[in-house]
Design brief:
Blueprint (H helix, E strand, L loop, with lengths): L2 H10 L7 H24 L5 H33 L4 H23 L4 E2 L2 E2 H21 L12 H27 L10 E2 L29 E2 L2 E2 L2 H5 L3 E8 L4 E11 L11 E6 L4 E5 L7 E6 L2 E2 L9 E3 L12 E7 L13
Parallel strand pairs: 3-7, 4-13
Antiparallel strand pairs: 1-2, 4-5, 6-7, 7-10, 8-9, 8-13, 10-11, 10-12
Helix pairs in contact: 2-3, 2-5, 3-6, 4-5
The structure holds protoporphyrin IX containing FE.
The site of protoporphyrin IX containing FE has 28 residues, from helix 2, helix 3, helix 4, helix 5 and helix 6.
Length: about 350
């Protein structure tokens, strides 16, 4: 086919001002935005996470609007070509669409999922499993995106689609507000506030709740065993939200002492807090006044599943920072920002 003929045929395949190749570019950008903003809604402080969650939702709805353009463009061509790998691409597409539906069901609180397969967790699973599929799909495409794809008309179409996505998101929010369905900026729904006995018990990935013997529990601070009862007697109440990456949040009146108040004047850029499960996180020493050790809620001792006998309370940070079953606290010169943003196990 001559250059002119191929140019004309790609133009005649335009949908909504976009060629098949341009539709692919839009989808690729949306996928990356969804992963980055999804993670952003976990990693940002609770009072900033709404920015990532809002962009995430708009990108999700825009993706749905682009799907028909994709189906009428390269999906149709791909099925005519008949390569076996079209089924892998189909699986990837279905996974993404299921992810959208599950994210939406969680957001609207219409369906929570079944047992371990919470709608939000399955949504996340499809998102993360989608990454290798996405890389393979982008690398194996016969017709690669080119710079000429970024023309003015394509830009206007992309802005039009994103505006339509934003309008759908805005409408959803108005309807949810009218129906009284409130959720946090992170997208989490409120559960069992000030009812600690009903608060869920979650662990990070492969952690399991350890057996807890309160009489023999050994908490070491800077290498020295401390008297737990004496520390627990010093607590003061602090009202804070625990916002879990599983999509729920709960406000409690926690009984806490600040991390700074249990540390010596020894030098150290960070405070490393370790759980009996081996799970640990570094907190910048300068934040140690705003991170707390917690022994209970409103005079009630912590329950085993909630980290008894002592856990971290880290207001304005997501659940993975709220380390449970603390056994060791030490000062270190490692910089807190050099750790993985979320633990890998
Ligand atoms: C490419 C894969 C993904 C797609 C297509 C997708 C799409 C969506 C959609 C359509 C919603 C519903 C938004 C609404 O109705 O307002 C949603 C919600 C959500 N997603 Fe994703 N998502 C993906 C990956 C992720 C990842 C990897 C994370 C986290 C690491 C994540 C976290 C969230 C959260 C927290 C919500 C709730 C937001 C809220 O209620 O405002 N998503 N997602």
């Amino acid at each position: 086919m001559s250059f002119k003929a191929s140019f004309v045929s790609s133009r005649t395949r335009q949908r909504f001002g976009l060629t098949a190749r341009q539709v692919n570019v839009v989808l690729e950008v949306l996928f990356v935005v969804l992963i980055v903003t999804g993670l952003g809604s976990w990693l940002l402080a609770l009072d900033k996470a709404w920015i990532a969650a809002t962009i995430h939702a708009i990108a999700g709805f825009t993706l749905v609007l682009v799907v028909p353009l994709k189906v009428r463009g390269s999906v149709r061509t791909g099925f005519k070509r008949g390569r076996m790998t079209r089924w892998v691409s189909t699986l990837f597409g279905l996974m993404l669409l299921s992810g959208v539906v599950l994210g939406w069901l969680h957001t609207t609180a219409l369906w929570w999922g079944i047992g371990y397969w919470a709608a939000m967790w399955t949504h996340l699973l499809f998102g993360f499993v989608g990454i290798p599929f996405f890389l393979w799909h982008a690398a194996s495409r016969p017709s690669k995106p080119k710079l000429v794809d970024l023309d003015r008309r394509a830009m206007l179409s992309a802005v039009g689609l994103a505006s339509a996505g934003a309008a759908i998101y805005g409408t959803q929010e108005v309807v949810l507000a009218a129906a009284g369905r409130k959720r946090a900026g992170t997208g989490s729904h409120e559960i069992a506030s000030f009812e600690p006995d009903k608060m869920p018990r979650m662990q990070w990935i492969n952690d399991t709740a350890p057996r807890v013997d309160l009489d023999t529990w050994d908490l070491r601070i800077e290498g020295e065993s401390v008297d737990l009862a004496a520390l627990a007697a010093r607590t003061e109440p602090l009202v804070a939200w625990l916002d879990c990456t599983d999509g729920w949040r709960s406000q409690q009146r926690w009984d806490v002492v600040s991390l700074e108040s249990v540390l010596s004047d020894s030098p150290g850029r960070s405070v490393k807090v370790t759980s009996s499960t081996g799970y640990s996180r570094l907190f910048a020493r300068s934040d140690a006044n705003d991170v707390f050790l917690c022994f209970g809620y409103d005079g009630d001792p912590l329950r085993r599943g909630h980290g008894a006998p002592v856990r971290v309370v880290a207001p304005n940070r997501r659940g993975p920072w709220w380390i449970k079953w603390v056994v060791d606290i030490e000062l270190t010169d490692r910089r807190a920002w050099l750790q993985l943003p979320l633990p890998a196990s």
